[in-house]
Structure formats: structure tokens, C-alpha cells
Amino acid sequence: MKAKLLKRSILVAALLLSVSTIAGCTSVVVPLSPEVIAMTDDDDGLLFGHIHLTQDGKDRSTGLRWPIDMKWSIEEKTHKRKLLIAHLPVDGPFVVKLPAGSYRITGISFDSTRGVWHTLLPARFDIQPGACTSLGIWKLQMRTRFFAGWITREVFNGQELAQDDPWKILAARGCPVLAPPLESPVGNSLRLSFHTRGTDFSILSD
User: Fold this and answer.
1) Taking the CB of residue 204, how many other CB atoms lie within 10 A of it?
2) CA angle, 89 as apex, 157 and 136 as ends, to 5°?
3) Is 6 within a domain?
4) 127 Cβ contact list (under 8 Å, min separation 6)
5) Which domain covers residue 37, as residue numbers?
6) Angle at CA of residue 95, ends 94 and 100, nearest 5°
7) Is 166 part of any domain?
């Protein structure tokens, strides 16, 4: 009996260590506020863009109360570096500082009172040292029911956003702007993950 308990304890400890190690491999970054936008590290570049989300026909200006922000899981191709960009706006511009590299978005999520909605809207972009990469304007349309959901994305050129404060700051600093090819319109289902009695359940939409 003692041997079984010891073996079980070792397995639990190994599992916790493994989960801790995996969690520790993902760094969290958040958008910069306009007053702190600066290129302070020669190995970094800036990623910027503008997001406008509507859910069931509503946006932030017409009474949309959820979601208030979104998260992107991204991965750098060369070094397999994983990052989570948290607190991205659902209606407005953003600027994020990232290490130089080639990135792809591996997941997008929205927190809700019932759990977390997950989806994938693929995109790739490069970050170069001392340069600014534009993702343009992302127009997202989301539809959700109790368990099922759907989201679509269209990407537009973001040159007309030059009057927004972040872009004025970047222009004033002479940051060279890189623009990857515009992504084609894409749609994907949303998956709701929630916790009940210590178990994680995922419900896939049709």
C-alpha cells in the first residue's frame, strides 16, 4: 500500500512539474500605452493594428458589453518561442513590442462569464529590429449562442488610421513600417471551454 501511495505521489509531482514547465514557456505581453511607446531594445520591433469587433450586430458604440478584450496565442517559428498577447482591444488601435522573428497566430480567445471562447484566425507576420509591422484593420464579426459560435475576419489597409495617437507617435519616431500581404477573408467556429467540478469541458460548435 505504501509503495502504491509513493508511486502515485511521484506521478502527481511529475505531472505538476510538467504543467508548471509548460506554463513557464509562455511569456505574456500587453499592448503599450501611447506615452510609453519607444524602441528601447535593438532586438525588438513593434506590431500595430486596429481591431473592430461586432457581436450579433452590436459593437462598443451600440451597447456591446462583451467581450471587452481578446487574447492572441502566437509562436515564433525559428526559436519556437511562445507568447500570449493579452488585453487586446475589441474596438481600437494597439501597439505591442515583440522580439524580432517570424510569427504565426496559433489561437484567439475571449473570456466570458460561462468560460473561454476559443478560435483560430490564421495570420503570419515578421518582426524586424527597430521596425514597425502593420496588421492593418481587422474587422471581426462574431455570432454566439449558448454553446455554439462563429466568427469571421476581413483585413483592410490601415493607412487611414495615421491620425490616431499611436500612429502619430510612431511616425514622429521615424519607425519604418512593414506591411505583410493582406489576409484573405476567413471564418471559423468558436469553441466554448468551461470548468465544472474541477473538470475542463470543451464544447465544439457545428
Assistant:
1) 12
2) 10
3) no
4) 44, 45, 46, 47, 98, 99, 100, 101, 102, 103, 133
5) 24-204
6) 140
7) yes
CA distances from 47 to 18, 44, 73 (A): 32, 10, 14
pLDDT for position 171: 65
Distance of CA 187 to CAs 56, 83, 108, 183, Å?
15, 23, 13, 12
pLDDT value, residue 31: 93
Note whether residue 89 is domain-resident: yes
Contact 120, 105 (CB under 8 A): yes
* pLDDT in 10s for each residue of the chain, 206 residues: 444 433 443 333 333 333 333 444 779 999 988 767 765 567 899 999 999 999 988 888 888 888 999 999 999 998 889 999 999 999 989 999 999 999 999 999 999 888 899 999 999 999 999 898 989 899 999 998 878 899 999 999 865 555 555 666 676 667 888 888 888 999 999 999 875 434 444 443 32
DSSP secondary structure, 124-138, as one string? EEEE-TT-EEEEEEE
SS3 156: strand
In a domain, residue 55? The reply is yes
Q: Which three cell numbers stand for residue 37?
A: 511607446
Distances (CA, A) of 18 to 7, 82, 193: 16, 16, 22
Residue 47: phi, psi to the nearest 5? Answer: -110, 130
- Which triple of cell numbers denotes residue 63? 451597447
Question: Could you tell me which of 114, 110, 145, 138 has the C-alpha nearest to residue 53?
Answer: 138
